[in-house]
Write a structure and sequence with these properties.
- Strands 1, 2, 3, 4 and 5 form a five-stranded mixed sheet that branches.
- The chain contains twelve helices and five strands.
- It starts with 9 loop residues before the first strand and ends with a helix.
- Strand 2, helix 1 and strand 3 form a beta-alpha-beta unit.
- The model has no long low-confidence stretch (mean pLDDT 86).
- With 372 residues, it is α/β, with parallel strands linked by helices.
- Helix 5 packs parallel to helix 9, helix 6 runs antiparallel to helix 7 and helix 7 runs antiparallel to helix 12.
Length: 372
Amino acid sequence: MTETTAHPPQIDADGRAPSRLRLSGSWTLDFAGDIGAALKSVPAGIDAIDATGVERLDSVGVLQLLRFARRNDLDFDVLTFHESHQALVSAIEDVADDRPRKKREYGVSAALARLGRAVHNNWKEALALIGFLGETQVKLLRMFKEPGRFRPTATVFHMEQVGLDAVPLVALLCFLVGAVVAFLGANILRDFGAEIFVVELVSISFLREFAVLLTAIVLAGRTASAFTAQIGAMVSREEVDAIRTLGMDPIDLLVIPRMLALLVMLPLLTFIAMVFGLLGGLTVGAYSLDIPPQQYLARMHETMELRHFLVGLAKAPVFALLISLIGCLEGLQVEGTAQSVGERTTSSVVQSISMVIILDAFFAIWFMEMNV
């Protein structure tokens, strides 16, 4: 049996770039003293370190390099590691809080660079979402061919969690907004002696826009974050890897039940939101505008059109699909730390609410152009 000889750590200057160092040998616990001595002998003025030639690397070597970077006010990004060492370096980098913080750059060029990186990252997120949508749809169609993949218990559990538990919040919010819309509309219409048109204002605004938009925003903040946190915690505990190891598909187990639950519950919650929004307008009409409930309901019955109800309800499944996909995708993109779970949860809420509002604006323009 041939024994592999471990070479001590070595640091050499790059012949073509004197400010760049090349590391070689074994940067492990066995050579902890040699590593410290080698790093102390490094001259000042170093701006890059190439560690791709390191034969062996463990946590002691990575931590020593982190401390060296901190002492010399270097960003850890200036160190380049071999691809086989990246997983170890990333794991230690995530828990090592004493690394030097990256200095913020000021000026027009730095601001443009940050803007460019932000646009590039958003473009990558959009492409990832489109790809995830396609993958989920394919596996949803596969489920029709193989019904055994469907998880009814998980689906019903998530329907209760995202739907029934959200009813009080959605109802109260829409009742209050309906009352506010009626009150503000009455203040303007009173100058023209036309308070009765508050009925049309409340009914049309809630049936077409407010009910579905408020419900989607509430669920984007409440449900998308819950999906991301639940799946992200499973990723950080390596439970998703265990699911794959057992030959099961995380999309079938984690994503599709949540998506189906939201596709069912968001339209139902939208209907509840419409009812409570109209009740808010009715309450203000009865107690503040001196419009008797019978007259309010009769006016609403005469002027309410079915197309407004259908327009509002048609947007609910689209918002449900978007919120569930963003929440699940952000959860699956967690990279194993509690900090990453928090960052992805915040990102899923921001993305969901932003996309709901943008899509609602496109829907409004499209329905207006189609004269619906």
